[in-house]
Write a structure and sequence with these properties.
single chain; about 170 residues; mainly alpha; three-stranded antiparallel β-sheet; 8 helices; about 10% strand
Length: about 170
């Protein structure tokens, strides 16, 4: 059954529903991958959110071909705080796409150091003191670097100084 958006996005723009479906497709492919480094993080998320309940992690890895897109969508919905994909699907048109894009970038990009916190309040306190933006990811939170416009207001970047005796 195709999922249609109540308002078609303008050319070049992507809706929040399309973004989540695209992310689900990417995660589904990774879960089915034979590479441990690609499949295990996704399979762990499926087990943590109880999107799949009948197997252990090793059992799920060996039967990763049984993972369906609906399992990934259910996990994404539960990580966002919704009981089901259907509830999340109805709320998505009202969620800012830029927030969802930040979440997608948090899940990827292992080359960028991310500051993780056990809850959103701790991440917000850190972001208020040190700069950056707190983003909720499931029950945890991450602080992302300040947006480029914030950095431009802060002035020129600091230049490293040579250490004495170097």
């Amino acid at each position: 059954m195709p999922i249609s958006s109540p308002q078609p996005p303008c050319a070049g723009q992507i809706s929040s529903v399309q973004l989540v479906l695209r992310e689900a497709r990417r995660l589904h492919r990774a879960a089915a991958s034979g590479a441990l480094s690609e499949a295990l993080p996704i399979l762990r998320r499926l087990l943590t959110t109880r999107a799949v309940t009948d197997r252990s992690l090793p059992g799920l890895f060996h039967a990763r071909g049984t993972v369906q897109r609906k399992h990934v969508l259910r996990a994404l919905a539960r990580e966002a705080g919704y009981a089901s994909w259907e509830d999340y699907r109805h709320a998505l048109p009202h969620i800012d796409v830029s927030h969802l894009q930040q979440l997608a970038s948090v899940q990827r990009g292992t080359s960028v150091l991310k500051l993780w916190f056990s809850d959103t309040s701790a991440a917000r306190r850190f972001a208020a003191e040190q700069g950056g933006q707190a983003v909720r990811v499931g029950v945890q939170a991450v602080v992302l670097p300040a947006a480029p416009s914030d950095a431009a207001e802060a002035g020129p970047p600091l230049r490293p100084r040579a250490l004495p005796g170097a």
